[in-house]
Every structure is written in C-alpha cells, then in structure tokens.
Amino acid sequence: ALERLDFKNALEQFKKLVEKMVTQKKKEKSGLYTKDDDEIDYHKFYATTRALFGPEVKDHNIQAYFRKIIHNLDRSPDWSEIFGCFIEESDGLSSQSKESMVFLVSEKQQVTDSVVKRKDVIKSIVKVPHLDFTITASQKGVITIFDNQVILIQTDTVWITGCDFVPQLKYVVAVTESTIIIWDYKSEEKKNNGFVIKPMKNCLLCVCTVTMSDHLAKDSILMGDDKGHVYLLTMTSDNFILKEYKAGKESQFHVLDSETFNIVKRKLHDDWVGKVMYISALKRFASCSSDSIRSFVLDDIKRLEDNLPVKEFSVPKGVNAFTYCEKAKVIVTGG
Questions:
Q1: Are 167 and 294 in a shared domain?
Q2: For 306-325, how does the pLDDT look when each residue is reduced to its tens digit (9 = 90+)?
Q3: Parallel, antiparallel or unpaired: strands 253-257 and 194-198
Q4: Which of 19, 53, 134, 242 has CB 3.0 to 4.6 Å from 146, enough for a Cys bridge?
Q5: CA angle, corner 244, sides to 243 and 249, nearest 5?
Q6: DSSP 3-state assignment of 38?
C-alpha cells in the first residue's frame, strides 16, 4: 500500500512537470517566454523524471516521451508511455485500474555463468520443444544449446544475425553477413563439426525453418537479406558428404560451395527483410520489411519459385516484426 501511495505521489508530480513544460513551450512559440533558471529543458526533464521513478524508466523512453511532447503540444502522450507501454483510452477504465497496468520491476535476477562475452549481444533465441532445449546465437559468433548441460561453439566468423533448428537433419543453422553456418551439435568431435555455405552475395539478416517436409533426410530454410530478397534453401544429407568438403587447415568448419545447393530467391521488398516465418497452420510463408510499399508478404512458398503476384500489403514506415496466433487465427504486426 505504501509503494502504491509513493507511486501515486510521483505520478502527480510527473504530470505537473509535463503541464509546466507544455505551458513553457507554448509561450516560447508565441514569443512570450523569457528564459530563467526555472526553464525545463531536456536535461532537467530527464533528471526530474529519473528522480521521481528511479531505474524503472529507461533512457530511451524518457527521450521518446520528451520528443512526443515537443512535437505535439496540444495533446501530451499518456503518462504510461514513460514506462515504455501505452494504454488505450477508455471511458470505462478508472485511474486505479490504469495504475495497476504498469509493472514496476525492482528486483532483477542476474545469471552469473554467462556463455557470452562482455560487449556481445544475443541476436536470436529459439526453443526446440520436442528436444527440450533452447538455442541462442550471439552477434559475435557464439552459438549455444541450453540443455541439462551447456553445449557451445565459437564460430570462425562474427556478426550472426539469426539462427534456427532443422528437425530432419538435426542441425543448428545460423546466418551471418555473407555465410550460412550449419552446426552438427551431436558430433563427438570438438572441431570440424560444422559447415559453412558460401559465398552469399548479399547480407543475410534472418532465417527460419520450413516445417513441411516429412522426408527424413531433407530440410528447407527461409532467409531474408538487406536487398529485399527472400531465399528458399533446400538441404539433404547428400550435401554433407565428406568428398564435398573444402576444409581449411586452421578452420573448425568444412566449407561448402553455395552453388552446390538448391537455392531459390525472389525480390519481394525494396528494403531490408526484418523477419521471415513459415506458418504451418496456414501453409504459407511470411516476410516483413521496413519498406513502406511492400511491407508484409503472405503467400504460398511456391511464389518464391515463380513470378506470379504475391499477396502483400503496405504500412507507413514498414513492418519490423510480426507473429501469428493459431488459436485466434490472426497475424499481428509491429511497425
């Protein structure tokens, strides 16, 4: 109860701060404001907000909130946006229920046994339910499987942009700026248990598995690049026969020529492909882009192999993320 009261008092002071700043900015526009020591600039707004709410608010949310006020003085953003969330206005929503929709996270748990080096970033996390493990790939080239034990591999390359698991061949697949990495995590060898498919002409940004093949020795993956192309790569066990390797002496990977693989590609967007996904329930693939004209594509995977029109729609400034809910039968996009 005390925490709730403290939050309510802080919220009232924050609202007064916003009102005062809006009044000041309106006077500045009309030329009636004289600068003094009580002026509220960004630095003062930041310091006051941080003093009121502490570490519960993030720097980028404070900056975004301040920018929204400056750009629209007639309608200030909802106070909840300072926490990185937005509550839709409703006449039936009381102020008490509004407060309860903000989650204040004061206690955080830190994992001390890190498998990722400092100044590295996790770029992709994939859950493999039927094998009960989770795969992560870091930007600087560390691919990790979290099981009852931790299995990891340090790749020869850096800047991994995505990863997934191919179920039939039972490999971990990851994409980098110019290569495709295939990791045989089951191999007992510490080295030479991975494959690199190259060269790839454009920068690969995302990857996902196409879960429609029942062939025990065949898998397909979708990839997107920085030029708006979506790729369909089909792999079989024959692609990984020893005689096709071009392994370097110091490399832990066997190098495979991309020309030996069945790779289909089609340009679907005019900007970076942010995400690709195969939606099994719809038997369709989907891709999104920051492209404002061809922002989201949803169609049969056969469209990658022909030039027939695809089902697409546009969103101003594009689509950065999306997902599909099978129970509700809806696709949700975020721009």
A1: yes
A2: 989 999 999 998 999 999 99
A3: parallel
A4: 134
A5: 85
A6: coil
Residue 233 exposure: Cα atoms within 13 Å on the Cβ side: 28
Place of tokens 């495709």: 180
Residue appearing with tokens 């469209």: 303
Q: How confident is the model at residue 90, as a pLDDT?
A: 47
Q: Decide if 82 contacts 65 (C-beta within 8 A).
A: yes
Q: Domain of 290?
A: 122-334
Distance CA 24, CA 40 (A): 8
Asked if residue 221 lies in contact with residue 210, where contact means CB atoms within 8 angstroms, the answer is: yes
- All residues at 6 or more sequence positions from 182 whose CB lies less than 8 Å from its CB, including other chains: 171, 172, 173, 194, 195, 196, 197, 235, 240
End-to-end Cα distance, the chain: 38
Burial class (CB within 10 angstroms; exposed 0-12, middle 13-18, buried 19+) of 180: buried
Which structure tokens are listed for 170? 């039972």
CATH number at residue 257: 2.130.10.10
Same-domain check for residues 73 and 134: no
Please indicate, yes or no, whether residues 17 and 140 belong to a single structural domain of this protein.
Answer: no
Domain count of the fold of the chain: 2
Average pLDDT over residues 246-259: 70
Does one domain contain both 68 and 213? no
Residue range 270-296, pLDDT digits in tens: 999 999 999 999 999 999 999 999 999
Distance CA 98, CA 102 (A): 7
